């Protein structure tokens, strides 16, 4: 995802990460877990591996 002007302004204001994430997702960003689950559906990885890698997200 490309950094938008709106996101850039919030970063400069030191906006909490949770708010940045909400805005980024609303602008089309895909979270790591969502992207990984698509890989599971495509048969490229396992659900177990996705849960291990994304457990902190």
Plain-language structure description:
With 57 residues, the chain is mainly α. The protein has one domain (5-53). Helix content is 61%, strand content 0%. It contains 4 helices and no strands. It has helices spanning 5-12, 17-26, 32-41, 47-53. The protein is elongated, with a radius of gyration of 14 Å. The chain starts with a helix and ends with a helix. The mean pLDDT is 95.
Secondary-structure blueprint of this entry?
Layout: H1 5-12, H2 17-26, H3 32-41, H4 47-53
- Low-confidence stretches are none
**Could you say which structural class the secondary elements and strand pairing correspond to?**
mainly alpha
Strand content: under 5%
Q: What is the end-to-end distance?
A: 18 Å
Mean pLDDT: 95
Quantity of strands, as a count: 0
What is the number of helical segments per DSSP (H or I, 4+ residues)?
4
- Domains counted in the coordinates: how many? 1
Q: Tell me about the largest β-sheet.
A: none
Q: Which overall shape is indicated by the principal axes computed on the Cα atoms?
A: elongated
Rg over C-alpha atoms, rounded to the nearest angstrom: 14 Å
Main attributes?
57 residues, elongated, mainly alpha, 0% strand
Give a quick rundown of the structure.
The protein has 57 residues and is mostly helical. The protein is built from four helices and no strands.
């Amino acid at each position: 995802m490309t950094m938008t002007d709106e996101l850039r302004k919030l970063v400069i204001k030191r906006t909490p990460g949770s708010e940045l994430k909400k805005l980024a997702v609303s602008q089309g960003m895909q979270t790591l877990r969502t992207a990984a689950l698509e890989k599971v559906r495509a048969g490229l990885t396992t659900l177990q591996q996705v849960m291990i890698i994304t457990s902190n997200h």
